[in-house]
Amino acid sequence: AAIISYDWNIGFVSAAPDGVSRQVIGINGQWPLPVIEGTAGDTVTINITNSLGNQSTGLHFHGINQKGTPFMDGPSAVSQCPVPPGSSFTYTFQLDEPGTYWYHSHSNGQYPDGLRGPLIVHDPNDPYAGQYDEEIILTTSDWYHDEVGTLIQQLLNTSNTGFNPPIPDSLLLNDTQAAKFHFTPGKTYKVRIISMAAFASTLFQFGGHQMQIIEVDGSYTQIATADQIRVAPAQRYTVLIKALATTDLNYAFLVALDINRDFTNVSASVFPHNITGYIVYDESKAYPSFPVEVDTWAPADDVTFQSQSGQSLLASPTKEITLNFTFGIDSQGVPRSYFNNITYVAQKVPSLFTAFTTGSSNTNPLVYGTVNPFVVESGDIVQIVVNNNDAAIHPFHLHGHQFQVLERPASGSGAFDGHNIAFLGAPMQRDTVTVNANSYVVLRFQANNPGVWLFHCHIEWHVIMGLAATIIEAPESLAGGTIPSDHQSVCNAQKIPLAGNAAG
Ligand code: C2O
């Protein structure tokens, strides 16, 4: 296995991906950002230097489970202190599982300013080897013309009593508005679709070509054929697309922001809501203008997919966590979001270091403060139920695991009634799942990865509003853990205490 090293200077550069120039967060003076790429078993080390001048930062490697390295997971105030301007920090971790991932800032709501990119882990034992000829990465992202700091001020303003997140100004494909893929007749393409969006889900339909889904969020599926998919923020779908045998046409594909379900108060004319990419067989032929609109979106349902991992339905839960999600106004008049009437407030001491340094009291949720802490024991079968009391779809993400998705009924189904769950076959595993409006989702995973892991809505604006919980996994094996020296210097530079107890 190889060691793959990157040396990244993180700082502002200007870019105009949709024609409007703005400051974005680049790496080594460039934007779009580089792809992190390796093979399962490789070790990655990324030395970052924060040259943002006035903002702290930190990176999260979304979907990488960080087995044995929970302090490399990245979220500020959870598994590290933020890296202040002028400081450096080195992330080192193993690429355990092959698949399609991404990295992004997990500090200050920062990734919509551009600090996000693909992370690809190749598979030396690819079960689909031989069934495709070439690989393509296709990122999708909503995009804003204002910087995150400005958008957060609007979001958390006491006048925002409708809890409205900022509305994106445009939609990007591969950080441009003109994605084009050249296909050769007879070949099959493996397309890794990655949503790096902050808010809006995107719908995909390839004119004249079907998708065969083979992987979601780093987990192989048995082939599921689809004409349309819906990719929520942070989700990934890897699909095989077979080129046609004839070359007498070029084809368009449509990518649309999911206006009806994400933007309950916004009319379609407010912003450019879809863009067209092209599958090009012959540059000399015309590009079709269809499908510019799609009449009906009926995307494939990931809960019906069968996993290829061979892991059948996990046994009855030994630990149940129910999260009732609502919006509300706090005592200061600020719009917030809540799990079980508690809004997440980042603590001074990173929660993982609290688990390391509070001895046997680290099994007591009270030591972690207002982070919605849930303690699970090593080996527990953990069932998480999210009851969504909002009228829109939300994507929920768990760090440290690929959970099984057991049940996700239609919008309007109300709260989960606690019934026993039966599932035929092997439930889909992924790390980010949507829950329908006024409905629920049921997830299960086995506690086999000691650490402190966030569970949160991946709409970045809702993270900022406090829609997060913290899973304290196997605290008995975290007690007495050593805080690596790189972490100590970053915390010390900001006078953030390394040890402690949020309550005391
Ligand atoms: Cu994409 Cu908390 O992460």
UniProtKB/TrEMBL annotation:
GO annotation, biological process: cellular response to iron ion starvation; reductive iron assimilation
Keyword Signal: yes
Domain of life of the native organism: Eukaryota
Plastocyanin-like domain ranges (all copies): 15-125, 135-281, 345-476
Any Pfam family the entry gives: Cu-oxidase_3
Keywords for this protein: Copper, Metal-binding, Oxidoreductase, Signal
Any one GO CC term of the record: high-affinity iron permease complex
InterPro entries linked to this entry: Cu-oxidase-like_N, Cu-oxidase_2nd, Cu-oxidase_C, Cu-oxidase_fam, Cu_oxidase_CS, Cu_oxidase_Cu_BS, Cupredoxin, CuRO_2_Fet3-like
Gene Ontology molecular function, alphabetical: copper ion binding; ferroxidase activity
Entry keyword annotation includes Plastid: no
Family membership: Belongs to the multicopper oxidase family.
PANTHER family (alphabetical): IRON TRANSPORT MULTICOPPER OXIDASE FET3 (PTHR11709:SF361), MULTI-COPPER OXIDASE (PTHR11709)
Protein name: Related to Conidial Pigment Biosynthesis protein brown1
Species of origin: Phialocephala subalpina
